[in-house]
Amino acid sequence: MTTFRYKAYNGSGIEVDGNLSADSIRDAIQRLKKDGLYPREVSEIGINGYIRKGISIQELALTTRQLATLLTAGSTLSDAINVLADGEKNVRLKSILFGIKNKVAEGISLSNALSDYPRIFSEIYRGMVAAGEASGSLDKVMLRLSEYLEGRAKIIRDSRSALIYPFFMTLVGICVLSFLFIFVIPKITRIFEDTKSTLPWITLILIWVTNFIRYYWFVVIIGMIVLGWGARLYIRIPSGKETIDRLSLKIPWLGKIVSQFYITNLTRTLGSLLKEGVPMLKALEMTKGILNHAVFNKVIDNAIQDVIGGASLSMSMKKAGSIPPVVAHTITVGEKGGNLGDVLLKVSETYGQELEADVKNGLSLLEPVLILIMGIIVGFIVLAILIPIFQLNSGVM
Questions:
Q1: Residues 325-341: pLDDT tens digits?
Q2: What confidence category does residue 45 fall into, taking pLDDT thresholds of 50, 70 and 90?
Q3: Of 24, 61, 198, 316, which sits most exposed with the smallest number of CB within 10 A?
Q4: CATH superfamily label, 246-358
Q5: Which of 105, 55, 96 is nearest to 76 (CA)?
Q6: Residue 283, Cα to own-chain centre: how many angstroms?
Q7: Is the pTM of this model over 0.85?
Q8: Do 258 and 248 meet the contact criterion of CB atoms below 8 Å apart?
Q9: Distance between CA atoms of residues 47 and 76, nearest Å
Q10: Within 10 Å of residue 133's Cβ, how many Cβ atoms?
Q11: Which residues of 99-120 are buried (b: 16+ CB within 10 A; e: fewer)?
């Protein structure tokens, strides 16, 4: 049994909350309804009382591959899940696997058992499993599903690792400059102010910036918080998110990276679903569910309408300005050859490689740019300090 925290409305419309034990989220919701409550939110909580976080995509990919291996070796589904649950060290994942195993042992299909954990197993995951169950090739589907998850995990992992060094450089630079402006520069500029002499403009600017940071640092922090909060609210508005998403595609270098990222995800997801026999319309709807980008969601919406109207996917993609012509042409070839799923997966592989190369090349240029910016700031500080010193020594001041 797992503990869940819930918020619900009673018969009088008053919101109540509490904890209850159940085998799954579905069971928890059913229990609440039997008690005359209308659930608003149900979340699993851990041993320490905090809401548990989801399983990482890397963990899910590894578990899926291990399940595929066991099924290929001839193990029954229930036994394979039980073996994975016994050997799993992640308490959260172990609990989920045992819950799924119990459902499968009761005769419930794997795809239906997975639906008890929608935050862990997406609609795409469940849809591909259902297709594998229908075709009798669940082992092969789980293997391809693990490859799909590993591909997505690699993109996320590479993007994060590539940003670590620039982020570290920026953080160190901010810390060093903060130390200089708060503790070092004020002592030096105070000497210049005591001379009562006319100071060069570059030194006056340095004094103004130093005083502002020393005495109004909280204004900077509050301003950053307000700006971040306002940006977050703006992105939550559909029109605001669409504006930001469109701008993200027009920024030099970043626009190309964003486009490659979403095209890779679009083609990999759609190709994987079509390869497992999921109907085109259903595959497009499921693919839209993972594309959190207004421009590419619009591409999928238009494709759905075009397919419903009898047009081909390639014709719809050719009309989309955000889809490169080579991708649209490749889709045409796949449609004519009857292997659209395989072709889309090949496109995703190609764009994934281009994405990785472009990210590395771009970040390799970012490093010297950051160093140049730091050099300009340090040079400004040095000049602002040395010029008045030279003037004092020469007797000009």
A1: 999 999 999 999 999 99
A2: low
A3: 198
A4: Type II secretion system (T2SS), domain F (1.20.81.30)
A5: 105
A6: 21
A7: no
A8: yes
A9: 32
A10: 16
A11: bbbbbbeeeeebbebbbbbeeb
